[in-house]
Design a protein that fits this description.
alpha/beta, 17 helices, globular, binds zinc ion
C-alpha cells in the first residue's frame, strides 16, 4: 500500500487521490478548509443563527420550537447545550438502531436531564434485523440502512409535530472534504442525503426493489421530500459554529458525559463510538476491505489538526488498527441478528481483500509493508 506523505491514509481508501507530492485529497481539502475557515466571519454566522431561532420561536408551533437528532455523543450534548441557552422548547430524537452500551444509555439520558424532551425511537426489530443482515451479507456494512434511518426519521417527526426548525450536526461535505456545491449549503436536501446518508445509492428504494420488501415498510428509512415545501427548516449546526471535537468534548464533560476509563479496541480515542456496538463490526470490516481502520481515521484527523506527529501516529495505528474483534462484540452481534459465530466469520472472510492481506508461515493474516513509506 502507498500512504499519504502528510497523514497515514492508504491508497486503498475509496475515492482517495494523491497529488504530485504524494499528498492525499483529504489533506488538501483540510488545507483549503483552514484557509476557508479563516475567511468565515463566525460572529456574523452566530447572529444569523440567533435570528433564525427568533423566527422559529415567533412561529409559536404547538409543541416544540426545535428538534435535534441525538446519539448521546459529545456532539449531541453540545447541540442541546447551545439550544438551551436560547430558551427553546426542544425535542431531542434518538434513533436506537443497534446495540446500545451502558455508557451510551448514561450519556443519552443526560439530554433530558439537561432540559430537552427526549424521544427514543426503536424500529420494528424483525425488519430492522433483516436489514442489518442484508447490509452485512451483501455489502459488508451492517449499518447500511441504519444510517439512512437515523437521518430520515427525525425529519419525519419534525413534519408530524410541525416543528419549524431542525438542527443537524456537521455537514460532512464541508467538514471532511467533499462535493463543493453541497459543502456550501446549510440545509439538508435529497441530494445531500443520497450522497452522505445513503451509501452510493444503496437506499430504501434500492433495497425495497432488490429484496422485494414493500416500500411502505421502508418509508421511514427514506428522505422525506415533503420537507422542501414545508414550513420546517433543517440546517447544519456546523454552518453557524466552528465544529471542533475537543471543544465539544469539554462542553459534554461539564454536563456529566462519561468516557471510557481507557481506550478499548480499534482506536486510541476513549470518547468516540462508545455508545453502540454494531459500529465496531462495521469498522472492522473496513479493515478487512481496505487495510485501515478507526485508529487511522483518528490519527489522520489528529495529524491534520497538529495534535500528533506522523511517527507518533504510526505507533498508535500499529497498536490499535488491526486488532481482532473481541468476543464481547461478536457474541452480542450474532445473538442480535440470530446467526452463528461460524456464519458470521465466514461472511467476514468474504470481505477480506487478499491483495492487501497475506498469510504468514503459521497461517496468520497480516498486511505486508504495513505503514511503510
Ligand atoms: Zn493525507
Amino acid at each position: 500500500m502507498k500512504y499519504c506523505r502528510e497523514c497515514l491514509m492508504p491508497d486503498t481508501k475509496p475515492y482517495i487521490s494523491f497529488d504530485e507530492k504524494g499528498v492525499c485529497n483529504a489533506c488538501r481539502a483540510h488545507h483549503l478548509k483552514q484557509q476557508h475557515l479563516e475567511g468565515i466571519d463566525w460572529k456574523t454566522r452566530e447572529k444569523e443563527f440567533d435570528q433564525m431561532v427568533l423566527e422559529a420561536k415567533a412561529k409559536r408551533a404547538p409543541f416544540y420550537d426545535v428538534l435535534v437528532p441525538v446519539s448521546g455523543g459529545k456532539d449531541s450534548l453540545t447541540q442541546v447545550h447551545r439550544l438551551l441557552k436560547c430558551d427553546l422548547r426542544i425535542l431531542a430524537v434518538n434513533v436506537d438502531y443497534g446495540i446500545k452500551t451502558e455508557v451510551g444509555w448514561h450519556n443519552l439520558m443526560l439530554v433530558a436531564d439537561m432540559g430537552a424532551n427526549l424521544s427514543i425511537y426503536r424500529p420494528t426489530q424483525p425488519l430492522h434485523r433483516r436489514l442489518i443482515y442484508i447490509g452485512l451479507q451483501d455489502f459488508g456494512d451492517p449499518d447500511l440502512l441504519s444510517h439512512t434511518l437515523l437521518h430520515a426519521y427525525p425529519l419525519r417527526v419534525a413534519l408530524q409535530f410541525k416543528i419549524p426548525l431542525v438542527i443537524l450536526g456537521e455537514n460532512s461535505a464541508f467538514e471532511y472534504g467533499g462535493d463543493a456545491k453541497l459543502a456550501q449549503k446549510n440545509t439538508i436536501t435529497r441530494e445531500w442525503f443520497s450522497q452522505y446518508a445513503a451509501n452510493k445509492g444503496h437506499d430504501a428504494k434500492f433495497v425495497s426493489e432488490r429484496y422485494e420488501i414493500p416500500f411502505e415498510q421502508l418509508r421511514l428509512y427514506d428522505f422525506p421530500d415533503e420537507i422542501e415545501q414545508s414550513e420546517t427548516r433543517a440546517v447544519f449546526m456546523s454552518y453557524f459554529f466552528y465544529w471542533d471535537s475537543e471543544t465539544h468534548l469539554e462542553i459534554a464533560l461539564k454536563h456529566g458525559f462519561k468516557t471510557l476509563d481507557e481506550a478499548r479496541e480499534g482506536t486510541y480515542r476513549n470518547y468516540v463510538g462508545i455508545d453502540e456496538k454494531i459500529n465496531r463490526i462495521h469498522q472492522y470490516i473496513k479493515v478487512l476491505k481496505f487495510g485501515y481502520g478507526r485508529a487511522t481515521d483518528h490519527a489522520c484527523e489528529d495529524i491534520r489538526a497538529g495534535r500528533l506527529a506522523r511517527e507518533e501516529a504510526k505507533k498508535l495505528v500499529r497498536q490499535y488498527d488491526l486488532q481482532d474483534l473481541s468476543d464481547d462484540y461478536v457474541d452480542d452481534f450474532v445473538k442480535y441478528i440470530g446467526i452463528s459465530r461460524d456464519e458470521f466469520f465466514a461472511v467476514l472472510e468474504k470481505y477480506r481483500n487478499t491483495r492487501i492481506w497475506a498469510k504468514d508461515a503459521k497461517g496468520k493474516w497480516y498486511i505486508p509493508y504495513h505503514l511503510e513509506d
